[in-house]
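Appendix B: complex inputs.
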Amino acid sequence: ETGVTQSPTHLIKTRGQQVTLRCSSQSGHNTVSWYQQALGQGPQFIFQYYREEENGRGNFPPRFSGLQFPNYSSELNVNALELDDSALYLCASSLSGGHEQFFGPGTRLTVL
Amino acid sequence: DAKTTQPNSMESNEEEPVHLPCNHSTISGTDYIHWYRQLPSQGPEYVIHGLTSNVNNRMASLAIAEDRKSSTLILHRATLRDAAVYYCILRGPFNDYKLSFGAGTTVTVRA
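Resulting structure:
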């Protein structure tokens, strides 16, 4: 059984640029959630996708957007990057209605 | 979101039990108590969850107070690999989609 994978591992961008982060869900999982974790803090919920539709959103601006594909893999897109967007971005997959979320190792984004 | 309160840090010796407290005085009747942990340089990892009764699994035990306003995660024999940040999270009924992480408790295990 393959776990949740994310790419790339690390990424450096400059302010104003756009970035796309990718996540492959654990086999059989139909739900994916994205979280942002700033240094020294707990992860903050960005949004969740279920069957290719956004299923809930945290307190993040519209420049944070996402996609979920028919194979349940997912993308997180961030436009007009700001310095405060520097963080670890985590995705987590789960079965709808399941209690356990399975997290990937994260993508470390640095915005200069 | 109902809030949880945890100590910032705790220390333990290897092979001794660790009791991690969590207060959640505003918990609702349908909130589940979830625990996740995050090892250094890794994503969070599910540990255990419960509703009313105490729960045991291969990783830990969860003791829930009778009034459900507090709970304790118990690691029976701490190992160096248990050094992590432990998060106590309340989650609504099964179709509540997000996990609301706080700052968690940083556990240090001494050899």
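The radius of gyration of chain A is 13 Å.
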